[in-house]
Here is the input.
Amino acid sequence: MGRTSDAKERLVETAAEMFPKYGFHAVGVQQLCNGAGIKPGSFYYFFSSKQELMVCVLEWRWQQTLEYIFQPIENSDLTPVDKINDFFKRLFYIHDSRKMQGLPVLGCTFGVVGSELAVHDEEVINKISYIFDQFVGYFETWLTEAYRNNLLQILEADIPNIARSLLSFSEGLSLMARVQNDANIFISQMSYVNNLIGVKT
Here is the structure.
């Protein structure tokens, strides 16, 4: 079975690469185990199904997103407007780092998996919806701070909708980066972020 101490983690990391790359339904247990370097029979020692593994992948990716994107931005001394812009810069660097390593740009795991399983798996979609709500929560916090600092030409009542628009914009860019296998779209479209959130000029 290999080293049981990290076999589960290797399965999660392998699935986090394979599911967005090839599709949830296209990847079998045998492929996952081969990629993780464990015996196929070991899979069901850790997970009752691919669905359970998928939920673990989403949780793992969310923790990475917190660690590498949201928490560093939240703990920075950036202005609220710059925090929003830094979010998109970090997306660029994360996606571009794959291209620099000769790996395909896969886009956002949450969006890719969500689009495939939207009408098939309620548990997975509920998890992704929860994660997207966390994205929106951070955006709302930064927008509210920017509004109260008189940096935005918007109505306070519009902040929740603008926050969701930021999520939609980021997911759209992630999709285009995946389709074009090029993260530079995040940089080329950065100038529209301030327009979207109504930054005063």
Observations:
- Residues 118 and 125 are 6 Å apart (CA to CA).
- The chain has a mean pLDDT of 95.
- Residues 1-47 form a domain with the Arc Repressor Mutant, subunit A fold (CATH 1.10.10.60).
- The longest helix spans residues 122-148.
